[in-house]
Sequence to fold (218 residues):
Amino acid sequence: MKTSLKKEITMKYIKQISFCMVIAIFATGILTWNIFLNLETKSTVSVLSHSAIRFHILANSDSVSDQALKMRVKESVVNYIYEKTGDFKTVDEAKNFILNNDKTIKSIATKAIADNGYDYTVSSTFGFSDFPVKTYGDVIFPKGTYTSYTIKIGNGKGHNWWCVLYPPLCFVDVSTGVLPDNSKEKLRDSLSDTQYHTVTKYNFKFKYLKFFNNLCQN
Fold:
């Protein structure tokens, strides 16, 4: 009886050791992969900062009315840009259009503000801005510094809204979970295969790490 109990305890101990070894190997693999992915993400952001253009609108304040006004301005400006250009063929084409039509874009924003009963001033800048991680369908733009076109309404103290003017993602239906093929093609043309997979498989990374964390806690 004692021998059987001792054998059972030994087998249980061996199973626990084996499980811990598997977890250790798994953790090492995850850590190595995470280090590589972080390095690749930095490389991807470096490329995207010059090959993509983010569009940024700052509301006057966080009041309900100012936030609603921000969305009206967004609709007017984005509609104008895409009606005039269709899909930009290159990032330089998008950049040149914005710079050459900055005054017109601001006048459209000002008109949208006036049409809604406000008299806020409108200012704009084209340069580099910091953005948090943002999901567009099945693609994630990592946190980083990107080329951006920013419109500030009034004091510009409210929560902002942003999208990507190039590749054209401002009208992406995120509810479908899938990016249009033409937008993906432009994104792929700007990145290496590894960098492209970094932004298209980022969701998997987070789900995988979340699963591992839950496993370790149980």
The CA atoms of residues 46 and 145 lie 8 Å apart. The two ends are 32 Å apart (CA to CA).
